[in-house]
């Protein structure tokens, strides 16, 4: 029997300078805070402003660039894992948030991860 572990899938452009390991570990910590189990699967996608705005219009009919979008899936997978959903974070806005709030980029991204995961959990 395979060991159960959280699976955090990260997709991002290499020019977005944030470590995948940081994103995975931070997301795992937040998922545990919300009581999610080791068999949880989450996707994190970092995009630019144009793609974030396009997705916001396509799925929410809102015409602005969001910091984070949450797409809940809530699906039991054949391998016994639970696919919670995907988070789309606008990397340029996260960087701007960090500068405006006088914090480092990792702190800004952590806040967006928390916000997005909270939204996914509320929908479950």
Could you walk me through the main structural features you see in this protein, from its secondary elements to its overall organization?
The protein has 124 residues and is an alpha/beta fold. The chain has a single domain, classed as 3-Layer(aba) Sandwich (Collagenase (Catalytic Domain)). It contains 4 helices and 4 strands. A 4-stranded mixed β-sheet has the order 1-2-4-3. The mean pLDDT is 94.
Q: What is the assigned CATH homologous superfamily?
A: Metalloproteases ("zincins"), catalytic domain
Strand order within the widest sheet?
1-2-4-3
What's the end-to-end separation, in Å?
27 Å
Shape: globular
Can you tell me the CATH topology? Collagenase (Catalytic Domain)
Structural class: alpha/beta
Tell me what the CATH architecture is: 3-Layer(aba) Sandwich
Question: Characteristics of this structure?
Answer:
124 residues, alpha/beta, Collagenase (Catalytic Domain), four-stranded mixed beta sheet, 44% helix, globular
């Amino acid at each position: 029997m395979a060991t159960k572990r959280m699976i955090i899938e990260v997709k991002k452009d290499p020019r977005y300078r944030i470590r995948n390991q940081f994103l995975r570990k931070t997301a795992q910590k937040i998922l545990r805070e919300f009581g999610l189990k080791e068999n949880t699967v989450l996707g994190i996608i970092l995009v630019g402003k144009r793609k974030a705005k396009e997705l916001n219009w396509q799925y929410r009919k809102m015409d602005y660039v969001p910091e984070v979008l949450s797409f809940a899936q809530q699906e039991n997978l054949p391998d016994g894992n639970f696919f919670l959903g995907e988070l789309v974070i606008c990397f340029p806005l996260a960087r701007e948030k960090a500068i405006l709030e006088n914090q480092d980029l990792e702190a800004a991204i952590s806040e967006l991860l928390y916000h997005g995961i909270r939204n996914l959990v509320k929908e479950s």
